[in-house]
């Protein structure tokens, strides 16, 4: 997936399908996914894309601490949104 690519907005089911299609098409190594999407669920997106591409490193983000839920959907990590500017994504992606 091209750096900074975004998935199109759609209905809840279409969002997961769009994410899976994009992962299959572009074969990214990593993704940053918001837990609370305007039209879907970031946990469902993470679960769907990691089933298709198990080695995909997914980092979830949210304004609320959901870190305790990340393992159930296949995410490799979690970061609160207000800490995103401080994250060394290069280090995270390399370790994932």
Description:
The chain is 34% helix and 20% strand. It is built from 3 helices and 5 strands, in the order H-E-E-E-H-E-E-H. The chain has helices at residues 12-26, 42-52, 89-95, and strands at 30-34, 36-37, 40-41, 57-62, 77-80. The strands form 2 sheets. The protein has a 3-stranded parallel beta sheet, with helices on one face. A two-stranded antiparallel sheet has the order 2-3. A hairpin with a 2-residue loop joins strand 2 (36-37) and strand 3. It starts with 11 loop residues before the first helix and ends with a helix.
Short account of what is shown:
The chain has 96 residues and is of the alpha/beta class. It has 3 helices and 5 strands; from the N terminus they run αβββαββα. The model is unreliable at 7-12 (pLDDT under 50).
Distance between the termini: 17 Å
Overall radius of gyration:
12 Å
**What fraction strand?**
15-25%
CATH fold topology? Rossmann fold
Give the biggest beta sheet: 3 strands, parallel
Helix content: 25-40%
The backbone outline, from C-alpha atoms, is globular
Uncertain stretches of 5 or more adjacent residues: 7-12
Per DSSP, the total helix count is 3
Q: Which class in CATH terms? A: Alpha Beta
Task: Work out the number of β strands.
Answer: 5
Q: Helix and strand string, N-terminal first?
A: HEEEHEEH
Number of domains: 1
CATH superfamily: Response regulator
The CATH architecture = 3-Layer(aba) Sandwich
